[in-house]
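Structure tokens please, single chain.
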Amino acid sequence: MSETTDILRVAERWVGEGRRLALATVIETWGSAPRPVGSHLVIDADGGFEGSVSGGCVEGAVIAEAMEVIESGAARVLEFGVADETAWRVGLSCGGRIRVYLERVA
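Here you go.
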């Protein structure tokens, strides 16, 4: 079973439990980004999460954005990298860049 399958099963189980969720998916990387395209992070409305989109570099920022996505329902694309002013704040100092698609899961 793949890591993606595991995360999607977690999301399915959480939806079945009535949790409100967001799903973050790596859609593009450049340089030395630590997770490949297609990696997932599932986040519930209480801040619980499973998976990884960056090996710990930007998860905190993605989880914070997920709270807004869960409430509003408006999907968004997040971009992090050393050329971005948030690079040092979120810790993606490895030289890579990453784009993450964040959407609410019904």
